[in-house]
Amino acid sequence: METGRGFKYPVRVPYAHIDQMGVVYYAHYLVYFEMARGELLRKAGMPYGEMERAGVMLPVVESHCVYRKPAKFDDLLDVRITMVETRGIRVHLEYEVTRGDELIATGYTDHVCMSCEGKVMRPVPELKKLSVLCSSLAS
Description:
The protein has helices at residues 28-43, 48-53, 125-128, 130-136; strands at residues 7-12, 56-57, 60-67, 76-87, 90-99, 102-115, 120-121. By secondary structure, the chain is an alpha+beta fold.
């Protein structure tokens, strides 16, 4: 069930991502989530590399993925970030992976803002704006 809103990032499944059964190996969906997240940050004007140089890290503290249908070599998938919200010290992102109109997987990642020294910090203001940007960057 694709929502039609959010930030969309296309991924063409490479042969290296399939397992012996000919389907995308489950852990690669988290990689696809990361690729979409990185591109959303870039489009929002705050590439992850710049955030790190400014002393802000965004480690994943929780992730979850539900696999609904298999994806295969050369499938064109859309990874859509459907929600970004801050919850106290956490930043929560939700994802949908589709192939055309088929829902392939759903999931989420939770992150905390940390200094380079490993101290937890409140989300920087730019991250709080991602929710609005996520909706406005819908493609």
